[in-house]
Amino acid sequence: MKETKDGFIWHRVEDTFEEGVKDFGLIEFKALTLEEYNKKVLIW
């Protein structure tokens, strides 16, 4: 939907077979460095 200074915003809309079109709203993604990813996403 639009880029931000450190990621992007995506508007998630799906056309489901059973329920028709569903709007899941806006989702903001932030770009991470490998170090940030390892600290926040990976659990060792």
Q: Which features characterize this protein?
A:
about 45 residues, alpha+beta, 3 strands, three-stranded antiparallel β-sheet
Structural description of this entry:
- With 44 residues, the chain is an alpha+beta fold.
- It has one domain.
- It is built from 1 helix and 3 strands, in the order E-E-E-H.
- Strands 1-2-3 form a 3-stranded antiparallel β-sheet, with no helix packed on it.
- A hairpin with a 2-residue loop joins strand 1 and strand 2.
- It starts with a strand and ends with a helix.
- The model has no long low-confidence stretch (mean pLDDT 87).
Topology:
Elements: E1 2-4, E2 7-16, E3 20-30, H1 34-40
Antiparallel strand pairs: 1-2, 2-3
Rg from Cα: 15 Å
The major pleated sheet works out as: 3 strands, antiparallel
Helix count?
1
* Overall pLDDT score: 87
Principal-axis shape: elongated
The end-to-end distance, rounded to whole angstroms, is 34 Å
Beta-strand segment tally = 3
Our count of domains comes out at: 1
Secondary structural class = alpha+beta
* Proportion of beta-strand residues: over 45%
Pick out the low-confidence regions.
none
Order of helices and strands: EEEH
Helical amount among residues, as a percent range? 10-25%
Going across the biggest sheet, name each strand in turn: 1-2-3
